[in-house]
Specification:
The complex is a heterodimer of chains A (about 240) and B (about 600).
Chain A (H helix, E strand, L loop, with lengths): L4 E6 L2 E6 H9 L4 H8 L4 H6 L4 E6 L9 H10 L2 E3 L2 E3 L11 E5 L3 E5 L8 H5 L13 E3 L6 E3 L9 H9 L5 E2 L6 E2 L10 H5 L5 E6 L10 H13 L9
Antiparallel strand pairs in A: 1-2, 3-12, 4-5, 6-7, 8-9, 10-11
Chain B lengths: L9 E6 L4 E6 L2 H7 L2 H12 L14 E4 L14 E6 L16 E6 L3 H7 L4 E5 L6 E6 L2 E6 L8 H12 L5 E4 L2 H4 L7 E3 L3 E3 L4 H7 L2 E7 L9 H15 L3 H9 L3 H9 L20 H7 L1 E5 L9 E6 L5 E3 L5 H7 L8 H14 L3 H16 L18 H13 L3 H5 L3 H8 L9 E2 L2 E2 L9 H9 L12 H13 L12 H12 L5 H22 L11 H4 L14 H15 L10 H6 L6
Parallel strand pairs in B: 1-6, 7-12
Antiparallel strand pairs in B: 1-2, 3-4, 3-6, 4-5, 7-8, 9-10, 9-12, 10-11, 13-14, 14-15, 16-17
Helix pairs in contact in B: 1-2, 2-18, 2-20, 7-19, 11-13, 12-14, 18-20
Classes of the chains: A alpha+beta (about 240), B alpha+beta (about 600).
């Protein structure tokens, strides 16, 4: 399984990398905890289940330079503009990016993106009564992409999902300051994640992961602390979120 | 007010004396003629200081933070902020005004410029003087001046963390001064991300004179563009020009540090206070050594595919976090120029200078001068407060850096720069006081590089290695510094066409190469008008005697020295080609009319 070739996209177009290559790249010695957090290793059930593969955006922290091109690329796609009645990529305001790079001192950059957690605590936290027909709450998992989506029409703006994400996982889900409705769930850009495509340094990959993987879903501060300890022998960031 | 595409049309003006915060409209004509960044900053400076001789440390002198039209858009390498003010360092040989000085501008990368534009402004102008140490917090429309006494004396690395803790939100982008700026050391810098700086020209000193410790900005908006479709197409081309290119990879590999060995080999490096152009031990502090022993991470500014910045960790006596260096300038000014070949020691010096908020270049230059004066016996150990400032002495260098930032003992004099030091010491030391107009030269040596000498001599902020070695380059770079783009990617010829297309698509004005350079020429000439009004003349565009007298004794350019008459000939031709008077350097009326700087 480790040598299985998976296609992904780098800055020069599609590249091949093995699961083992990728793990090596992400791992970085003491950063292995982060790696386990991202992948989970209890994939046996998945291997036997025959479930369809799930692809998502993963980060190689050692390659990330903190340039935030991913934010702009994400925003361009997911916040399109309308020109002459035609939908075209937007100008990439990072305010509307679903991926966000958290930068620290000492220099560590942690792109944070929805972990698409198998047990989706955000969805579980949604208090909206499941729809009789679809079984969906306002926040639900898309059957095709496995991404987390929000039905804005039914959403109460109660921020429960964001709180669950922040306390249990990455804290990516952010309530809109005005409406309280959740933002920043990864859309996977319809199968062609622009952050991966546009990263100038090949730090992001769109790879197959195990569907029942157990994400520890570490927040950026914890990941940064792990990396900083490993790279610089210190993890004093001064405490700001 | 109708908004011009590519701009918010708004400058945030903060008067620290009165606490008044205003959003001022930028005249549309100014955007057309001066674009942004250095150019628009210069126009604001010109408009605010209507008479010559204003004390640069007075409340009247504006401190101007300028992004450009590229800032806040995902254009590769569109990360720059240009800080513009009246220089607290330079002065002319002769002037009717006691506080005469040049314009000053300093350009830094990072995330600050884009964030200013996200917050809804095309620039920030700070005037006045706060009663006590303060900082400004800008969160979109919401702008506050806050009291910051508790941060007094805090070094920049600690402050970088402390301010974010205070604000409770890591998304704020911040610029700030260290103890050196608070103490009004003329060559103090403004830091950003603890390792990026608007270092040159005394920006930190002017900020300190306003009792301003920091500015924090966070925004959620974005400027518009004139032609969305054309913008997207040009953006695609700009990315293609740089992404995955050998050129970009070369920057990511070593950044500017590659030149530490390359320039030494070429005989164009500042070595031993500019006495030589080659440092035989350059390989010990160069890019290869840093890549092998120090760097663990490449770092990029906003949307930049070059990632020329590095970070790492050194161990041992001089161990600690390395936020950047060695870069070319930092590595040479504190390394080759002082004959320091100890990498951890060099990096400790670089870190300390940033931490205190000093300009790396001027600080290295000043210490090099003192080392030479000490070696020659023009000053003794008593003069240096007991510091044994011998060539290559890391501990002595570190001690001197601390003294300069604190203005303590010999540091008070050294803080005034090499020219003031040489006046004080006398005994012919001005021959090797390596400055122009009072600003110290950077890490490029010139006995074997006369055109770079022209850059140093004629640059508008005093000795500047980035100004350009000829008129066309000077004009072009004044413009690059005005659009929010970094200079480094522009050395890739494939970026030229997309850069012009992007600027045209964003602003709705059509730029070809000629229009681009013409605008730069206008900016450069406005700066010259300012300097001329202050009293700067041809006698101020001169280089120290060293470059005409002290022949290189080692290296590839052994025997090289500048020829004074050839240099003067080059200057005369330069003024003539500029359309300036060859005796006085006064910009000619015809040229100023052509550029729309005076009415016909």
């Amino acid at each position: 399984m480790d040598n299985e070739q998976k296609e992904t996209h780098g800055p020069d177009g599609p590249i091949n990398l093995t699961r083992r290559d990728f793990i090596k790249g992400v791992g970085m010695g003491g950063g292995a905890l982060v790696l386990l957090g991202q992948f989970g290793i209890n994939g046996l059930a998945w291997a036997l289940s025959g479930d369809p593969e799930l692809k998502m955006v993963l980060v190689d922290y050692s390659k990330c330079t903190g340039c935030r091109t991913c934010e702009a690329a994400c925003s361009s796609r997911n916040r399109p503009a309308t020109i002459g009645g035609r939908e075209v990529p937007g100008l990439g305001n990072p305010r509307f990016a679903n991926i966000r790079v958290h930068s620290f001192n000492p220099d560590v950059d942690v792109p944070s993106v929805c972990a698409m957690c198998a047990d989706n605590p955000c969805v579980k936290a949604c208090p909206v009564e499941p729809d009789a027909k679809t079984g969906r709450r306002a926040l639900y998992r898309d059957a095709k992409t496995h991404g987390i989506r929000n039905d804005a029409g039914r959403c109460l703006g109660c921020r429960s999902c964001a709180k669950a994400c922040a306390s249990q996982r990455t804290g990516v889900i952010s309530p809109n300051p005005a409406t309280g409705k959740p933002e920043r769930m990864c859309t996977l850009c319809g199968g062609d994640p622009q952050c991966v495509k546009r990263c100038p340094f090949g730090a992001l990959s769109y790879v197959e992961v195990r569907r029942d993987r157990k994400f520890y879903g570490l927040g950026p501060e914890k990941i940064a602390a792990e990396l900083a300890k490993n790279w610089y022998g210190t993890a004093d960031f001064g405490g700001a979120k | 007010m109708s908004r011009k595409p590519g701009y918010h049309g708004t400058i945030l003006n903060v008067d620290l004396s009165t606490g008044k915060i205003e959003k001022l409209a930028v005249p549309s004509e100014d955007l057309d003629k001066f674009v942004g960044g250095q150019g628009l900053g210069m126009k604001i400076l010109w408009d605010r200081l209507k008479k010559p001789g204003v004390d640069p440390l007075s409340p009247e002198n504006p401190l101007i933070f300028m992004p450009g039209p590229f800032s806040g858009l995902p254009v590769p390498s569109s990360s720059r902020t240009c800080v513009v003010t009246k220089s607290p360092i330079t002065s002319p040989v002769k002037s009717a005004y006691p506080h005469a000085s040049t314009v000053s501008y300093s350009n830094m990368g990072g995330f600050f410029g884009p964030e200013i534009r996200f917050a809804g402004y095309d620039g920030i102008v700070v005037t006045g003087k706060a009663k006590e140490l303060s900082y400004i917090v800008i969160d979109d429309d919401k702008v506050e001046i806050r009291e910051g006494k508790k941060f007094k004396g805090m070094r920049t690395d600690a402050f970088d963390k402390a301010i974010l803790t205070e604000l409770g939100d890591r998304r704020f982008k911040t610029v700030y001064i260290g103890p050196a700026g608070e103490n009004l050391v003329p060559y103090s810098s403004i830091l950003h991300t603890a390792g990026r700086a608007a270092g040159r020209g005394g920006m930190g000193c002017v900020m300190g004179s306003k009792n301003l410790k920091a500015i924090a900005v966070k925004g959620s908006g974005q400027p518009s563009v004139a032609d969305h479709t054309r913008f997207l197409a040009a953006l695609e081309k700009a990315r293609s020009a740089l992404y995955g290119s050998a050129y970009a990879k070369s920057w990511a590999e070593q950044g500017t540090a590659r030149a530490i060995v390359a320039n030494s080999n070429a005989g164009t490096e500042a070595v031993r206070n500019y006495r030589e152009g080659t440092f035989p031990e350059a390989d010990k502090i160069g890019g290869d050594a840093a890549r092998r022993d120090v760097w663990v991470k490449d770092i990029a500014c906003y949307c930049c595919p070059l990632a020329c910045k590095k970070s790492g960790m050194t161990k041992g006596k001089y161990g600690g976090i390395v936020h950047d260096g060695p870069e070319y300038e930092t590595g040479v000014m504190l390394g080759s120029n002082l004959l320091i070949a100890d990498m951890p020691g060099l990096l400790k010096a670089i870190y300390t200078i940033d931490d205190l908020g000093l300009d790396q270049i001027s600080t290295g230059n000043v210490i090099g001068f003192l080392m030479e004066a000490y070696e020659k016996g023009l000053i003794d150990r008593g003069f240096l407060d007991g510091i044994d400032l011998k060539w290559g002495n890391v501990d002595a260098t570190l001690a001197m850096i601390e003294k300069i930032a604190a203005k303590e003992g010999v540091g008070a004099l050294a803080a005034e720069g090499v020219r003031a030091l040489s006046w004080h010491i006398g005994k012919g030391s001005e021959k090797f006081a390596i400055q122009v107009k009072g600003l110290e030269l950077a890490a490029h040596n010139i006995q074997a590089n006369q055109p770079r000498g022209l850059s140093y001599a004629t640059a508008e902020r005093g000795a500047c290695h980035m100004s350009g070695d000829d008129i066309a380059t000077q004009n072009r770079r004044a413009m690059i510094d005005s659009i929010g783009l970094c200079l480094f990617p522009t050395f890739e010829p494939a970026l030229e066409e997309p850069m012009l297309a992007l600027l045209s698509a964003i602003t709705g004005r059509d730029y070809d190469k000629a229009a681009f350079e013409k605008t730069g020429e206008r900016i450069f000439n406005l700066e010259k008008m300012f300097n001329y009004r202050e009293g700067f003349r041809r006698a101020d565009d001169c280089l120290p005697d060293r470059f005409f007298e002290d022949v290189f004794t080692i290296g590839a350019k052994k025997g090289a020295v500048l020829d004074r008459s050839k240099f003067e000939e080059m200057l005369t031709r330069y003024y003539k080609d500029r359309g300036w008077d060859t005796e006085t350097t006064k910009p000619g009326k015809a040229k100023l009319q052509e550029l729309g700087l005076v009415k016909a």
